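subagent[fold] <- orchestrator: predict structure for attached chain, return tokens only, no commentary.
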Amino acid sequence: MTLFQAIIIGILSMLAASTPAMAGTTIGNYTLNRPLVAGLLLGIVFGDLRGCILIAMPMQVMWIALVTPGGTVASDLRAVSYIGIPLAYVGARAAGMDFGGKDAQGLASSISAMTGVIGITLFYLTAMMNLIWQHWGWAQIEKGNIECVGKVDALLPWITNIVISFIPVTLLCYYGSGAVEEVFNNLNTSVWYVKAILTVGAILPAVGISILLKSVITKNSDLIYFMFGFAMAASMGLTLLAATAIGGVFALIDYKMAMNKIELLNAGAGAGGMDDDDEEDI
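subagent[fold] -> orchestrator:
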């Protein structure tokens, strides 16, 4: 990885920071921060769209159910996307792995889990440093200096992002990629502990799917639909678009059945109400 590429990645991580994000959290945290979007952008940086997107796919699945309720942050995807993807891509390329293969996917998931911890540190350091600017701003307002509000709101947080996001990410990608390449050039994937790391990493995306199911499913019987869908996709070799289309058809059928049930209940209630009225008239 060249220094120029590392600088571009550092700028992208700064724009994708949670606080503040580029054009708010919609474009920053909820778009540029996502591994698949980052995989596309990093593919342009490295000149390999296919490789970077394939590396980003297990990371996206692993963190697909990540939410940030209030100030509780399980992980900041800024580090997963802009530290994890570049290092995993460089390592898989140095080891000669197939980017779509199990070894590369397991490596990507393992690295994303480790960089997720870095993301937590970056998030809270960013919030802590921004609190310093807020404290200074309140002190200036009490002195009658209203002009400081613009600086505290728009200018000073970018200094925070440069210090805590741009510089660490750039250095980690530039120097870390060299170390990763040196390690993976001589990596023997047949060694048992390397196999163990890659195998554990390969099943980590299942954790993201499990968390997503836990938040979506309201009844245990709903699991039947998901199990049927996974089994059908695996046995028939369906692509993502084909599985989505088939799932949409089943969802439409289920919706129509539910609506018909409601209409029948309403019709029965209406008929019962008419009988009661007739009895009262008699």
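orchestrator: received. Logging for downstream: The chain has a mean pLDDT of 78. The two ends are 90 Å apart (CA to CA).
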